[in-house]
Amino acid sequence: MSQQKPPNKHKKTINTAARLSGSAIQMGIVIYLGVWGGKWLDGHFDTEKVFLPICTIVAVAISIYLVIQQLKKIND
């Protein structure tokens, strides 16, 4: 009989940390793009800060959704 090695907990911890830091970067990029898009839309349609808060809130909601999905994958 061959002996199986126990799972390497340290490797799993590093993998989880890498995934979470990737999620943080993804969250920052999504929010940045939302703010940039809101500013662009305000400039394009010549409005004063109408699209900026809307796009920012939508981007934050999307990024929170993506982080929750990533956490579900990590816990499985």
Automatic annotation (TrEMBL):
Which UniProt keywords are listed? Membrane, Transmembrane, Transmembrane helix
Q: What is this protein called?
A: AtpZ/AtpI family protein
Transmembrane ranges? 20-38, 50-68
* Classification via InterPro entries: ATPase_put
Q: Name one Pfam family in it.
A: ATPase_gene1
Record organism:
Flagellimonas halotolerans
